[in-house]
Records
---
Amino acid sequence: MTASVALETSGPHPLPIRRPIEPGTRMWDETGLITFSLTAGSAFLLQTMEPTISAVVDEHSTFRTDPMGRAVRSLGSVMMWIYGGEEALAEADRLRAMHASLNTTDAAGVRHKALSSGPWAWVLHTGTFAFTEGSKYFARRPLTAADKEAYYQEVVQLMRNFSVAPKEIPENYAAFETFFDDMVENHLQNTDTAHDYLRVIRSVAPPEQLPRALRPIWRRAVAPIGQLQYFFTVGTTPEPARRKLGLTWTTADERKLRALGRLIGRTVPLLPERLRYFPIAYEARRLERDRARLRKIIDLRPM
């Protein structure tokens, strides 16, 4: 959370204890914004380029057959990490239990385990990148170095909540940047899973329950959304990763992304809170305000 959180003192490197993300943190204020979805694609793309995650996702994920369902479930889970209170820790434990059996062997005979410490941590590391990258394009003002460091210390708390191995957690944001750049340049690979994901988001398949007669209408309706999501995903993916995947990104594309980002960054803050935030985030924030008002009334009661 922040540098002032309680620490576990056992072991040579004290770590924050597991505790829910609290109101007033940057995560609480910004993760639930609808702009979160604009860089979620690049985070997942970077995950599918990690060899173990790619192999496990290739065999076990439903992103090809049920992309909408997978996206909604993933979004709901992430919102629980931040806004679920004590249930956030239960959600983290549920995900670890679910992934414990998600193992596979690739074509080269290499065994991959979803809970291997590096890949498990990489999922959260990509979220850190996506958040800071999103602020560069879609926020009213980019994060300062101090903002990034404060946010990263909240990430350390989140990683502790997910039982990430201490060896996988860089000490500060500067160390994270060095680690992240090395991962992208020297460890991520050009995988079929990554290309499948790009294909899926570009042309989102209709829900399975949608009648066959309505599917052409669906495809025409969502085509612009898919193209925009693909554009945002490629544009917010690091250049070395784009290069590995053979993706083109021109200076004109960059100008267009920055223009769209400025428009979004100025428009979203003007929306009512109910529209600015995803439902779980909005309700959690509203409930917290109600609790604060109740606390104030209780504190001012006659004694």
Note: The CA atoms of residues 20 and 84 lie 8 Å apart.
---
Amino acid sequence: MFTSVPGARLYWKLEGRAEARPLVLLNSIGTDMDLWDPVLPLLRPRFRLLRIDTRGHGASTAEPGDFSMQLLARDVMAVAHDAGIERFALAGVSLGGMIGMELALARPAQVEKLALVCTSATMDAASWNDRIAKVRSLGMAAIADLAMGRFLSDELRAENPALYETVRRQLVTMDPQGYAGCGAAIRDMDLAERIAGIAAPTLVVTGTRDTSTPLEGHGDHLLARIPGSAHAALSAAHLAPLEAPEALAAALISFLEG
């Protein structure tokens, strides 16, 4: 299905029993909804799943330009409205978690529970500015090695080279303008202090192999500031749904059904 919003056309999928609890799944920058594929068989029997390709990613198109976290949060609400979902839990990886935090602050009545997977409220703006400029001038291949070094661990690359190459191919063939636009949302986000206002029960999931948003300096910041937040640590690099699907599903189910 597609939802048209100003400046973008958003692709989404809704699956599962109509009476099941709604769960929105959001992807990281540089990936699409397929990021969640290994986890879906474990979540589908329990939840009504709404997956969304972030604007400029996957099958979602977007006009060039800098996006904001507020804009990306409004995209999610537009899709949820079209899907007939009023209240939902949300699990987001990296950028998806940042959008989730913005959404929990802006629309507390809609977000019942929040799972923040390998994400942060504090990223280095200068490094993201450099990455945005590089992508816009040289294309996705210019940052592919950097991104893949953070996305997946060396252990997974050795164990499953086909998966590694699939993720890399998806990254280098995506729209650089979409990546850059979402990169601007990360660069310019102002969540660091505001997250103390999140009212939804929150689970912070960190990866012990994650060099992009590890517990130290990222997950611990979320845990210290989001009231009552809980923590789960997985043996995974940045894309936890690909590296630790069973452990991630178990953590999500325990949190969401608890």
Note: The mean pLDDT is 97.
---
Amino acid sequence: MKRIPQYQPDEFNTILNLDWAGKAMQKKGLNEFFIEPLQVLSEAKTPSQPHRKTVNDFVFIKRGFLEKMVCSDTFTVQENMIILLPPYKIRTFIKNTPDIEGFYCHFSDDFIAEGPGLKYLQDILSYAEIKNNPTLYLDDQHEKRIFLILKQMESLYITSDSMELVRLYLFTVLGEIRHFIEKLPKEYLSANETVVLKFRRLITSRIQNLHAVKEYADLLNVSPNHLNKTIKKATGKTASEIIIEALVMEARALLSLPQYTVSEVAVALGIDDASYFSRLFKKHTGLSPSDYKKKIDLSW
């Protein structure tokens, strides 16, 4: 059984009930690269259900704003900002303004494997992970250059049969973002901040079968008490609260899939007692799993 819904680019129209690809849907390599003006979001149905993608993606905002939830944190992306996310990071598209302008772009690791792009991307993602924030507010110089490059890249993507020049433009965009980050104050993690970062990584990869603070503490070689204090100081929430948030998000996504029963969702999340799962879900959402599934069916 699947976990959180995981989409390849040619399946993205199901996320927002929107054909992201439009006239470019027929282009070869859609699962490797795609770029589209954000005006297409005026027809989107929001909010989306929590999901994962198999590609890196970023949104560049020239006008207006959008809101996106990444794991359990909500980010507002406004004018002159970029949000860049790696594959498999849980994301939920919440809403956008009707006047939104900018670009959406996705690309696979393979698409940028030859050349400097992958190194640029890794540096950008490492910075975002340390900050626990995938957004960047660009200065005027970088914003103008990136916008012009994206305009040219989108034009080439539509009109050219060759992707080589598009790939070079993407390298340039990633290089511009990396150059902007290099100008920012350096971030250094303390021992406690390193624990928080590793805890967040473990939550992402192990939430389906690890639900106890002690299990995560053992993997991090710290005591449960130390882990709780460290997480509370850094986030304002206990380690247990963050675990439950992640578990409920996984549950929301799985319950949105009509082919799975409540009991099957509970099992997929490593919970053998369906009654306990129902009580847990209702406590943190205000709805029973069955009522949540009905609500999703009616809204879509």
Note: The first strand starts at residue 6 and ends at 7.
